[in-house]
Amino acid sequence: MVNLGFLGAYSTDLRWAFSTRTALLLFVVPALIALGRPVTLARRALTGRGLQTLDRVMASRPVRVLGNAVIAPLVAVAVFSIFLTPLSGILRLSPVGQGAITVLIPTIGLLLVLPLIEYSAHRSSFFVTVEFLLAFVELVIDAIPGIVIRLSGSVLDKVPEIAGVHPFWFPSAMRDQQLSGDLLWFIAELADIPVLIILFVRWSRVDRKEARSFDDLSDEEMDALTQEHLRSRRQ
Questions:
Q1: What is the rounded average pLDDT for all residues in the chain?
Q2: Which of 4, 71, 153, 208 makes the best surface tag, with the fewest CB within 10 Å?
């Protein structure tokens, strides 16, 4: 549907089809791939050097940074901000640009969602709580490009409208841009809901893990831990 359906067929001609296709490639396609737990499957299938390479990649700093739930909406803002510039028109009308969008955008989406799903328990409860609070702020931030596109009084990609070439049902350039802004705004807000759900699941897993770790401590170990905490507070 995204590349071979309506959106793919009219992505070159319609701004809203191009922006919607890009948003779906960034959010929906990687999310559906991630549901299959590809990293977990790869861990079970690989051995030796292949498994070590996978571990190094997933433990690398870029992957860990992108696995932060706060980063995903910021990346979405950066990607959607392209539609505020003439670069969007160049990418939309260029076969090379369309091909680059098809490959690069889902790859970026996978780098955002895979660490978030595969390593949902590798955080402290405090860190996850901060992520959860900041994610609500991102609900507003990642809607900004769509709002700006919707309210803009000029065609932002600077591509002139060619009369008599497209079917009669095609919108004007300005209306096309407004539809693009509406759909980007809607998709950006909708895409934050799974992030919040993942954060809630991550928080519950981390909380259970920390609770079990405290339950396993003996009375002497718990007392020593309490005394150490009190000493650090006084210092």
A1: 78
A2: 153
Tell me how far apart the alpha carbons of residues 62 and 182 are, in angstroms, rounded to a whole number: 32
Residue 14: phi and psi, rounded to 5, are: -115, 130
**CA–CA distances in Å: residue 48 to residues 54, 115, 119:** 10, 22, 21
Task: Quickly count: other Cβ atoms within 10 Å of residue 78's Cβ.
Answer: 12
∠126-131-135 over CA atoms, to 5°? Answer: 150
Q: What is the pLDDT of residues 48-76, one digit of tens each?
A: 888 888 888 877 777 777 766 667 777 88
Token pair 């990607």 in the structure block, residue: 79
Whole-Å CA distances, 127 to 121, 122, 133:
11, 10, 10
**Stated pTM of the model:** 0.74
Task: Name the residue ranges covered by the structural domains of the chain.
Answer: 6-234
Angle between helices 95-118 and 38-45 (to 10 degrees): 70
206 touches 123 (CB < 8 A)? yes
Tokens describing residue 110? 């996978």
Helix axis angle, 125-141 relative to 173-215, nearest 10°? 170
Residue owning tokens 């001609």: 13
Residue 228 class from Cβ within 10 Å (0-12 exposed, 13-18 middle, 19+ buried)? exposed
Please provide the size of the chain in residues: 235
Contact 69/198 with Cβ under 8 angstroms?
yes
For residue 7, give every residue at least 6 positions away whose Cβ sits within 8 Å of its Cβ, in sequence order, or none.
Answer: 1, 17, 20, 21, 24
